[in-house]
Amino acid sequence: MELRELKYFIAVVKNKSFTKAAEDLHVTQPTLSKVVKSLESEFDAALFYRYPRHIELTDVGEIVYAQALKMLSIVEELDTALEDVLQMKKGTIKIGMPPLIGILYLPKLLKGFQERYPHISIELVERGANIIKELVADGVLDIGFVMLPADENDFQVIPFASQDLMLIINKSHHLAGSKEISLRELANERMLLFSQDFTLHDRIKQECEQAGFTPQIAYESSQWDIISQMVEYNLGIAMFPKSFAEKINQEKVKAIPIVKPQIPWELVLIAKKDRYMSHATRGLIGFITSSHSNLE
């Protein structure tokens, strides 16, 4: 049994005539009669009482008609739903990001995307980059913003932004007068780091060790605003990307370039390789790829 056969059968019932149904369907009457006969053979029962001047449904025909209407309705709903998804009229995207991303880029990025695709739902998960990588790998998240490194064997990696880290210190700090600072000069300073599920935590520790010292970690937090306020109260120093350093309370805090070495903060978008990607997610990645240079 095919959907085409059910459509032909329904047309006969609605027109109460093989001749009129054949005209509506643009097929010959013998073709239509053959299709109905095929259905009757499959069900092993007559679907119509055939009289000289009219036709009527049998009891079996009534059942087949009612169920055929339901089946065609489901197929039409499926076609509509698929069209909506393919045309990006609906869908849900789960995005993971560290808190800094939400502050620096996400509002403007999502505003532009949702103006273009207003019926796509976005679910945001704020976690450290290390956790986000795990969630993307496990399929919990569709895509994620993370700081490099990211394993290109596991992920599709799309460059998004690149900046250098800046030293964030209280204006009363003895290093506040410096125009630039080397990492080695921070060997005896109390550091405020993002917590261990953030890639930036590992990166700063690694850079310090390569510079010849183990950082003195005073506090760890997953919240950028807590770290920023701790710097305002001179509880330690911190390192933030340049764009974020420009947003700090400049009455109490100062941002100084770090040299020897410069520490890049390279932000990428990741998606799991070899996994089906929804049209909505593909659309967002395409939007980000085409527009992210205007967001920096």
UniProtKB/TrEMBL annotation:
Name the PANTHER family on file.
HTH-TYPE TRANSCRIPTIONAL REGULATOR YBHD, NITROGEN ASSIMILATION TRANSCRIPTIONAL ACTIVATOR-RELATED
The cross-references to InterPro entries, in alphabetical order and at most eight, read:
HTH-type_LysR_regulators, LysR_HTH_N, LysR_subst-bd, WH-like_DNA-bd_sf, WH_DNA-bd_sf
| Family membership noted in the UniProt record | Belongs to the LysR transcriptional regulatory family.
Keyword Cell inner membrane present in the record's keywords: the answer is no
Any one Pfam family here would be HTH_1
Q: Name one GO cellular component term.
A: cytosol
The protein's UniProt keywords, in alphabetical order, are: DNA-binding, Transcription, Transcription regulation
Q: Give the transmembrane region(s).
A: none
Protein name according to UniProt: LysR family transcriptional regulator
Domain (HTH lysR-type) ranges? 1-58
Organism of derivation: Rummeliibacillus stabekisii
Q: Single GO molecular-function term?
A: DNA-binding transcription factor activity
